[in-house]
Amino acid sequence: MTNQKYRNSCQLLPKVFVQGIVSGVLNSLAVGIIGTLLLKGYASTRTKSGSLRKEN
Predict the structure, then answer these.
(1) Separation CA 22–CA 29 (nearest Å)
(2) Which residue numbers in the chain have pLDDT < 70?
């Protein structure tokens, strides 16, 4: 019985590694894309240099 459990867990081990690698890559891509969109949105709200003029 124990041998069978061990054999099944060894067969699953590569699948677990692939799943972890794929999820890590996809998470990194999602963070990069969402972070870029947030930074672009934030940068568009900032006042541009020289755009303000002093009134008389």
Answers:
(1) 11
(2) 1-9, 56
